[in-house]
Design goal:
alpha/beta
């Protein structure tokens, strides 16, 4: 019996204006079981997002017309109850801590510098999904649930 592929069953949207990057990311993710839709711009991604219903978003930051920061803010504002929880990875050539902070503040869960090792990319996606599932199972306590003595 073959072991399950780590990304089996995941539907991933990749947004990157660079053809080589799209090909690389798609190949890596599909090899590990994911279904990938790769598009060239934030504009195209916004059009297909409702129909595609991705489990994960991987987005470049430096793109013409609209950068990844603006794109993720638009997604988070669409329907916060749905798109506010979409796991999102900024995969970018801008790897220093300033850009990492900007990515997280904009709404990405994680920031990964290009080039990324194939195994590392798969692990990042798998761990992000695992962390999101754990967070869903353990919602934060509201004040009404706290017991004061």
């Amino acid at each position: 019996m073959q072991p399950a592929l780590p990304l089996a069953g995941l539907n991933i949207l990749v947004v990157d204006d660079d053809e080589d990057s799209r090909f690389y990311i798609t190949t890596v993710l599909e090899t590990d079981g994911a279904s990938v839709m790769a598009v060239t711009s934030a504009t195209v991604a916004l059009k297909i997002l409702p129909e595609l219903q991705p489990d994960v978003l991987i987005c470049d930051i430096a793109m013409p017309d609209e950068d990844g920061y603006t794109f993720i803010r638009k997604i988070r504002a669409l329907k916060p109850d749905i798109w506010g929880k979409l796991p999102a990875i900024a995969l970018t050539a801008y790897g220093d801590s300033e850009y990492r902070s900007l990515s997280l503040e904009a709404g990405f869960q994680t920031h990964v510098a290009k080039p990324v090792d194939p195994g590392e990319l798969v692990a990042i996606v798998a761990n992000l999904m695992l962390n999101m599932k754990v967070a869903d199972l353990n919602p934060p306590l509201s004040d009404s649930c706290l017991i004061y003595e």
